[in-house]
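# step 3/5: fold
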Amino acid sequence: MIQKHHSLNELGWKECFKEQFEAEDGAKYLPARVTMTHKGHLVVSTGESELLLKIAGKGIGSLNEQPTVGDWLLMDRETMVPVKILDRTSLLQRMAPGQEVKLQPIAANIDTLFIVSSCNTEFNLNRIERYICLALEAAVNFVLVLTKEDLTEEARQYREQAEHLYESMPIVTINGKNPESVECLHKWFRPGETVALLGSSGVGKTTLLNTINGTEKEKTGAIRQGDDKGRHTTTTRSLHVMKSGALLIDVPGIRELQLHDCHAGIDRAFSEIVEAEEMCRFSDCSHEQEPGCGVLEALEKGSITRRRLDNYLKLKEEAEKNTEEIAERAKRNTGKKKKYVRKWKK
């Protein structure tokens, strides 16, 4: 959370946002960045002051969608109510947990995503691949950060497993409590750049934030014995101005990351399988037992692995299902609105 005055540039204000602002009535509106979201409220900073705003069910003020941490808003100078979300450079979002079919924004206007996992039983290749798909779909740079290397003698093995996930992905193994160990991350913390931390509870995101920023203000939680699961220590999505001038977005530990409309990201993350699919005889090949299946042939040759294939098929099916459910929900809501308008006119 922002605790002192900053210029807009220090809050991550860039030329693309400035151009949008200048296209509006600058005398009427004031730009502000969302620095925290928590339980139906959000905090925005104009650089000189902070405001606490209440989020309605469908949005806030005249906005028809919910802002998320990292967003830039145009505020009415007289009422200090947001009237517009400026176009985002990037958006991380997922299907909301629970039974309700809706999208949940995670963070916006991110330059680099730190995918944080740990060198213990929490480490999961399938889960990391989900984060990679999310980052590729949002077109943000991403880095895999493997924490707690000091608590195991197998940190190198964890890294070697991850090296096969995405060829150009930087991977670092660190002791999040050691300033010297996290020094390798500082090159991504450039002034005005926004970095987000995503990962499960207990992987050491808050510890990492404290060490990078040289603070001990955030609480850290214990790890359960036996399964290395962590307790939620971050309960809000918050943006921090780092000593380097970079901005860091910390997000509560994610237990469930359901993908939506993420087909391009999945295809890029599993490019070797997509290439093999192009060799299939049938366009609707299920890759199970069809003759002339390029994927099964690649599986036999060892150019793709069964684990990767199974996860690819699972993620494709999940993204397709969730995309259809969101589209169907939007269609139903549109029908309700039209019906209401007709009845009102009578």
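# step 4/5: annotate
Residues 218-234, 338-346 have pLDDT under 50 and may be disordered.
# step 5/5: archive (pending)
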